[in-house]
Amino acid sequence: MSTYLPTLKQLQYLVALQEHGHFGKAAESCFVTQSTLSAGIRELESLLGLMLVERTRRVVRFTPLGNKMVAKAHRILREAEELAEMARSAGKPLADDLRMSVIPTIAPFLLPKLLPALRKQYPDLKLYLREETSAAAIDALHHGQVDCVLLALPFAAGDIEKATLFEDRLFVAFPKDDPRDPPESITPDLIDESRLLLLVDGHCLKDHALAACNRPEMRAFATMLGTSLHTLVQMVDNGLGLTIIPEMAVTAGLLNGTDVQARPLNAEHASREIALVWRTNSPRREEFEMLADALRGLHAG
């Protein structure tokens, strides 16, 4: 076997350059100087005897081989991470670094309640959080940038394992004194699709809401404007329409200080499954199961 093999550092530089499309930003993400990163990639090209990146003053463009190398590098780096995780998990569980992505329709409503209690229960756990949309979070998971994701299902997440935490019901939020205000719950046929406000594409709650209503015409008529649930509620409070929000947001006080009312959505599958997910065959599976048990218990309490 050749002794001249690419180093993990060189592969990290290559992946960072492809992700950022800029030498300076890629170097910053790797915590090295631009000249160090550039030299590392040139050494890799010299080692292989092939060009991986076309360099111009304005554009960084990968060659076809360079793109194939990046795809392979992602897998190698992820497996290297898993090797380190295997060693860490052999020690005291939940006593080291753990990188977790959380989607925006969960993070502000669940984490303020759970994190202080979780820190108390596992004082040695160093939890690094990233808030990002479902698609971005799953992409980061499969590229080894995070270890697990706090996600709302169903969502096309690829090859993952999961631990269900709880079911989160969906509610319809509408302005106070709306003439169609039933006493207990709202059925999909009472929703005026021309007034329905939803999150922009990329947020899985939009798909959960439309699927629960089971009215295909809603997808065409629904106005997708909000970048956050807070924005949608402010729109509803100003009489611009109605929206669908999760129970955890209602419980956390999202409607406080507004004249917005909320009633449960009375329909099949009118809830989302809140779960902790991780890569299949991860060596830290036992830790993730423990973390899920902790989160489940803290939420129930």
TrEMBL record:
Is the keyword Transcription regulation in the record?
yes
Q: Which InterPro entries does its entry note?
A: LysR_HTH_N, LysR_subst-bd, WH-like_DNA-bd_sf, WH_DNA-bd_sf
Q: Name one GO molecular function term.
A: DNA-binding transcription factor activity
Record bears the keyword DNA-binding: yes
Q: Name one GO cellular component term.
A: protein-DNA complex
Specify the species.
Sphingorhabdus wooponensis
Residue spans making up a coiled coil are: none
Name the UniProt record assigns to this protein: Hydrogen peroxide-inducible genes activator
Q: Which UniProt keywords apply?
A: DNA-binding, Transcription, Transcription regulation
